[in-house]
Amino acid sequence: xxxxxxxxxxxxxxxxxxxxxxxxxxxxxxxxxxxxxxxxxxxxxxxxxxxxxxxxxxxxxxxxxxxx
Length: 68
Hints:
Distance between the termini: 12 Å
Helix content: 40-55%
Number of strands: 2
Oligomer: single chain
Order of helices and strands: EHHHHE
Shape: globular
Radius of gyration: 11 Å
């Protein structure tokens, strides 16, 4: 799953460490999300979307051909 997390974070001038602290996760989790190595739980996805004030679909981009 692709996402726009890094772009949104940088647009707002927030460091990975700051976002991680706000969301209650590690900086490594934020890095893994941004690099597409980790898909968030639905709860974390909602927290991220709420923090940025956008819908989940505006951050996390699901593509049908990704289903395995």
